[in-house]
Amino acid sequence: QIVSLRVGAHPEQPAKPGTLIDYATLRNPDHDFSDLALFNYCKFFVGPNSGLWLLARSLNKPVCLINAFPWPWINVPFPSNSMVMPKKLWHVEDKKFLTIFDMVQMENRYHWKNFKRDEFYDQIKLEIIENSAEEIRYAVEEMNSRLDGDQSYPEYRVSRFLESYNIAKETNALFPSFFVEENPDIFPQSK
Questions:
Q1: I need a surface site. Which of 23, 89, 109, 135 has the fewest CB within 10 A?
Q2: How does pLDDT run across 87-131, given as a tens digit for each residue?
């Protein structure tokens, strides 16, 4: 069984009872050192590409980035014990998901600051789809199993999907296998 712990400061609402240890709502806001200790003793980190994942990496902890977009290309040189799961981008007019290549092209085409403005997505007719609870659960289970030595999952290396764009060649990170297999429109070369 995987024991999950939510960290951070000032959450908008408490977590549902029984789903995890909600340290974020229990912690004393004047004791940030406790967050460091928790990161130091965790098996791995799961979260978005916010500042907390960098703390986990600085402590050499495996990272499972979820809801990643815009993608942290500058920071992508992850070790092989890390995973990245992007948000899905739905093109409203074309009625289809952007492929992984479309997402990369988008980041090459637009200034990164545009991705921080909600109205930008309306202008380019994109709807952002967060990772589902099921996708996150499978990614966490796969991450935990891989760290325990289970090599039965297929490997979908980030670099395999992005090498033609000369991006992420140095990374050994993986896309979660369930996410790739359940989203063939996003990963057409995985078919």
A1: 109
A2: 999 999 999 999 988 887 787 788 878 888 889 999 999 999 999
User: Cα(47)–Cα(65) distance, rounded to whole angstroms?
Assistant: 5
Quick one: pLDDT at residue 128? 92
Largest CA distance in the chain: 50
Backbone angles phi, psi at 66, to 5 degrees: -120, 155
Task: Provide the token pair at 54.
Answer: 């960098």
pLDDT digits (tens, 9 = 90+) for 21-34: 767 777 776 666 77
Contacts with 56 (C-beta within 8 Å, 6 or more apart), sequence order = 39, 42, 44, 45, 62, 63
Local structure of residue 101 (DSSP, 8 states) = H
Ranges assigned E (strand) in 16-146: 45-47, 63-68, 83-86, 88-91, 96-97, 126-129
The neighbouring-strand residues paired with 44 are none
Specify the 3-state DSSP secondary structure of 170.
Answer: coil
For 75-94, b/e burial (b = at least 16 CB within 10 A) is: ebebeebbbbbbbbbbeeee
Whole-prediction pTM: 0.84
